[in-house]
């Protein structure tokens, strides 16, 4: 399916000249005509949504960089000047800030779709791995950007996260000093973070090109999770355009409505109020938390009592995603036909939400007001911490234990021979079956 012949024919002299030297138009035309499984549902629209989010973040980021001053004495004031004095600055800043949240909403749903339908399985391992690289770069970029407004949460978030690097034995301290540009967070740190935050989105864009290249080569997965034989391509696929460009376009419009609601009606709903207070190294906030999309990993960090092991667990929570194609031992891709694994997947999603909730709680808060803490030899251990550790345990259990063992032991449901079977139980071709009856037949 991915090795289809090019149907692009240059028509003008300029097109022929360009096609013989840089066939970029041919690449775009071939992508638009790429045979795509005809049973893709709306979970497959988040790829286009993510591409839009990346463009929005780069475009608004470039404009903000024109007015931002990476100086500890002026950074906070420069952000406020963007909001008050730059024409449309408040909309641009709110679009950029909320765009990060929209980006992560889309990427989490995109990854959960890939996990549910087994999109990481052969021959699509590189698609998944490059996607995980993009996800890691997104987290790094988001953290660097969170520091730039230089509010209280920005400063102390940078203090906490960079200190984690220092927990690494032997090399941690030199890396920490290099990252900060000195022994403490200061102008050098802010300049480094600003430069990297500006650079990394373009690195992400390059990785997206690799992601699409790998997708073009290996071909699309589908909800049934079966490979489409070349002799069935014409029956089981349709061109990407216009069928899925229209479908993706409709999903993008709905997503933009949600995006606009946050930008215009509740622009600060996903942020933290303390970040509207200028950074003060002498006043520690009552509760230091990252943005909501980092809370599950922050909860995993806090679940481990040892600082270094907590850092290892936090990075391992991301690193385990890279080896996922080799952890899943099932020969069936889609969890639609794996009832046991589907149950564990639903629990995994709830665990992820629970970790996000735990990451937002105070370290000494109970799970429910009135629930008791437990007196141990080393002090008080509250019920919130027990829940946090239990959820962290299941997170790693899902990948390291359940995926290999369930894949070996479960009995999946029967899988259709082609994707046309569940779409057309009575058989026949999709286009002819969907066509209306002729007047002669009606009579």
From TrEMBL:
Ranges annotated as spanning the membrane: 42-70, 91-111, 126-148, 160-178, 198-215, 250-270, 308-327, 339-363, 383-406
GO biological process: respiratory electron transport chain
Entry keywords, A to Z: Electron transport, Heme, Iron, Membrane, Metal-binding, Respiratory chain, Transmembrane, Transmembrane helix, Transport
A matching Pfam family: Cytochrome_B
InterPro entries for the chain: Cyt_b/b6_C, Cyt_b/b6_C_sf, Cyt_b/b6_N, Cytb/b6-like_sf, Cytochrome_b, Cytochrome_b_C_euk/bac, Cytochrome_b_N_euk/bac, Di-haem_cyt_TM
PANTHER family attached to this UniProt entry: CYTOCHROME B (PTHR19271)
Name the UniProt record assigns to this protein: Cytochrome b
